[in-house]
Amino acid sequence: MLVAAAVCPCPPLLVPAVAAGAAPELDRARTACLDAVGVLAAARPDRLVVVGPDPDADPDGTVTYPEGAVGGFRGFGVDLDVRLGAGAPGDGDATRPLPPSLAVAAWLLQRADWADAPVEGVGVAGSLPPERCAEAGREIAARAPRVALLVMGDGSACRSVKAPGYLDARAADFDERAAGAQGAADTAALAALDADLAYELKAAGRAPWQVLAGAAHGASPEGRLLYDEAPYGVGYLVAAWS
Asked: Among 241, 194, 195, 203, which Cα is nearest to 222's?
């Protein structure tokens, strides 16, 4: 059963070593992320599952990463490796490196000194249909009596002319609806996000957010929106559910 969730953006720039001289620009986002992770610890879960977009996942499926799986930021010019959780790799494909979103999550957990529950990762294809997202979420929530989720994902990448996807007039409204749903822990609103529109707006968080909506089925969480801005023209939001 889902007992808590944290929603965080997943740009590698969240890691100061990657951001370098631009690191202070995301200080408020980092603080909000650590506050959200603190909500997870306070829930005393039996298991923490980290969910994020995964470019290597099957278009209609997910990839599981065991505790101890390793990732890093060498592809971004930084000699920095991270490990998911504190333990050695368990069952599963321990040789598969973490995708960038889960590597950022692993960095966040290390920074928060996470030691409150075993950790595993789930990589989600960006094209995963909403109904499959909901199914994956329900399966995750059933893995332990008390499950917490750390959900990584960005909003639209079309909020300004300098954004990765250039300016799209629909982007601000999409992000506003997503942020409102996260802040209210509105699972129906999250589940209703348009997958085709999210793809057009390069909103990588759509599928992980809908996994969260599925995991919260049957629960009645309360939500708080901790951060909602669009630096670099990309929508980043942080929320905590408990």
From this structure: 241
Taking the C-alpha atoms of residue 31 and residue 37, their distance in angstroms, rounded to an integer, is 10
- What CATH number is associated with residue 222? 3.40.830.10
Q: Which amino acid is at 195?
A: A
User: What's the CA gap between 12 and 241, in Å, rounded?
Assistant: 24
Residue 91 confidence (pLDDT): 45
SS3 231: helix
The per-residue pLDDT for 95 is: 67
Question: What residues does 52 pair with on adjacent strands?
Answer: 123
How many Cβ atoms sit within 10 Å of the Cβ of residue 118? 16
Token pair belonging to 206: 């759509």
Domain that holds residue 153: 2-241
pTM score, two decimals?
0.95
> DSSP secondary-structure letter at 220?
-
| Element (DSSP H or E) covering residue 238 | strand 236-241
Count of the separate structural domains present in the chain: 1
Residues constituting the chain: 242
